[in-house]
Amino acid sequence: METMKGEVVLNIPAEKAWEMYRDDQIISKIKPEMLVRAEYIEGDGSPGSLRLFKLGPAIRNYVKESTEKIEKVENGRSVTYRVIGGELSKMYDPYRVTFSFAPVHGNEEHKCVAEWKVEYGTLTPDTPPPHKARDAALGFLNWFDKFEPVAAT
């Protein structure tokens, strides 16, 4: 099994980034060109839950959707899931992703490190490593600290 990871520094606290990632309503509004909709289709986000991601036009030529089964949750810190449906499941098995959010030491109230890590096995010898998935995930995370929710009136 292979691994790949990447990280970005966000100008928001880790707790806020975590809450944004876990909330279907918020995450679906951050960058619709990349992610049109996230939805828990079974469960509440705890281990065993299923979450569907419908991806936007910016990456739809690579992946249109992804169904994920949540395996492990460290509240406020990280979530690990295995892709069980969509294009990635046809290229890799397993395809297990962990998103984590950690405060930046000394600047915990204002910054965090968001990390994306994948463990994967390719289904065919000519399947490339998931560089596009990593770049898309990190590109999406980069929008977290630019997102301003619209206040309800």
TrEMBL record:
InterPro entries: Bet_v_I/MLP, Plant_def-hormone_signal, START-like_dom_sf. Residues 3-153 form the Bet v I/Major latex protein domain. SUPFAM superfamilies: Bet v1-like. Pfam families: Bet_v_1. GO terms for biological process: abscisic acid-activated signaling pathway; defense response. GO terms for cellular component: cytoplasm; nucleus. Coiled coil: none annotated. GO terms for molecular function: abscisic acid binding; protein phosphatase inhibitor activity; signaling receptor activity. PANTHER family: OS08G0374000 PROTEIN, OS08G0374000 PROTEIN-RELATED. Belongs to the BetVI family. This is Bet v I/Major latex protein domain-containing protein. It comes from Rhamnella rubrinervis.
